[in-house]
Specification:
- This protein is an all-alpha fold and 118 residues long.
- It has one domain: Leucine-rich Repeat Variant, CATH 1.25.10.90.
- The chain has helices at residues 4-7, 13-19, 24-32, 35-39, 44-52, 59-75, 77-87, 93-100, 105-114.
- Helix 2 (13-19) packs across helix 3, helix 5 (44-52) packs antiparallel against helix 6 (59-75) and helix 8 packs antiparallel against helix 9.
């Protein structure tokens, strides 16, 4: 992982640069590196980077971004639900499935029924 501990109190521009990279591994690093921030209660970058990765064509990115959205949603459920309300209809299906994994069945069904990607 990019040394997220080192980046915590510094500008995080490098994460956004990585999220725009042509390299799948650099894009994945961008979202995975937010794990430390999430544990510190700082979820803003996770949501911003996940939004940047919404149109990524790689399943590995969908899994990582959806999974970290799910984890950030544990800190702020309403922020996760707002994100899903805005993007569930067009998110890649794998991305959505990972993001909604911890929601109750009724909510999961609701967001999956909105999704037009599958």
């Amino acid at each position: 992982m990019l040394s997220a501990v080192i980046c915590f109190n510094k500008p995080r521009d490098i994460l956004y640069k990585l999220a725009r990279s042509k390299s799948i591994w650099e894009r994945r690093t961008a979202i995975v590196s937010t794990a430390y921030f999430i544990r510190q209660g700082d979820i803003a970058d996770t949501f911003k980077i996940a939004e940047m990765l919404l149109n990524d064509d790689q399943d590995l990115i969908h899994k990582a971004a959806g999974g970290w959205l799910r984890e950030a949603g544990k800190q702020d459920r309403q922020k996760l639900l707002s994100f899903l309300d805005k993007y569930a209809a067009t998110m890649p299906r794998t991305f959505l499935r990972y993001a909604i994994e911890r929601l109750d069945k009724k909510q999961r069904d609701h967001y999956m029924s909105m999704n037009k990607a599958g």
